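Appendix B. One record, verbatim.
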Amino acid sequence: MLNFTPTGTDLIIGLAAFLLGWYVIGLHLSRRRGGALVRQIRDSIQSFGGAATIRWIGRSAFRIEVDALAPPLSRLGVSLLMEPRETFLLWAFGRLSGRRDWLKVSVTLSGGVKGAFEVYHPRRRGGTDSAHEVRSLGWGVEPFPGRAELLCAAPGPDGRALAQEVMGVLRDLEIWGVRVRNKEPQLTVSLPLSVTETRVPLPIFPLLAHLAQLILAGGFVRS
């Protein structure tokens, strides 16, 4: 019986082969996932009408923009950043950090906004940027009631009340961030997109018109 003891060189060669194999398989999965997401999002936004354009940003991200929408929406931007499936170490670190494919929906509204706030998950994508911005604005930060993983920042009680109303509409979704401002895009929603989420339209999109009406009114609007 042969008694084989791997050397350091053998381990390095084995690791290199593993990483190369992972890259090839991961690249294939990324391309397939990207194509599926483009179709899913495209089909989800068809009901809005308007003129849509898509732009790929590298191999793992794309952005879709839709102009000339009917009120209460004016313009829609959808960004998708996928997990780095082709790079094992980045993928593994991201998974350990709770990262997944990241969907960011930006909405320009057809009127003026009557409030401002930021709701964000401090340990998810976009959370660091949100924390820096609210700190620079001098807004008070407090845990969001009923969702312990989220923080809420606003310039005053009106903004916090509006955040409660908006998050009530989004209560059935896992949310990483919601931003409302008085400048374009007035509404931004950030959320993870699971590989098991195959519904069309994606649940966030049918809610956008109601969210827009709610934000433009500065408070409660009946469905």
